[in-house]
Amino acid sequence: MSYVKSVEQPVVSAKRFALRPIAMRDVSLLDLYAGDERVAWNTTTIPHPLPPGASRAYIERAQQPDRVEDVWVMDGEATGLGGLLGVISLVRLDREQSEIGYWVVPAFWNSGIASEAVEALVGANPQASKTVFAAVFQDNPASARVLTHAGFDYLGDAEAYSVARGAVVPTWTYLKRQE
Which fold has domain 12-177? Predict the structure, then answer.
């Protein structure tokens, strides 16, 4: 695989919040929400329990100039929703492709926050990707609906290892071709 060196991340506007690059000021809320077993359970990379310093290390990696993953916070502070509603990221793949991943604070589940974030980030296309991929656990159909609502097409079944679950979990894979 070849990776393109990262550039400055833009702030992306959504209707009810902004997607802004993750910052060290987010560490406390990231500890709180990423440390929630319900959040970790639906991701491949967040361990549960969350080890001390994990959020700080994640933010530091996300701020490195040679990173391959751009990370944004769903920030609803300006609209009164709160400073961290969730996290969304794009991982650079080769051949002008990206993989999107996201999680939302449980208090905002089923509120349309994830759909709004995915649509805003895919619409902005900050990595100039021609194709965006996503995978969701098959026991999380709400996340699959977020992707289909945003115009992603089902590609097939696969599996991924979940650190929080300590197991390989069946997934559905989706893609969206950018125009």
Answer: Aminopeptidase (3.40.630)
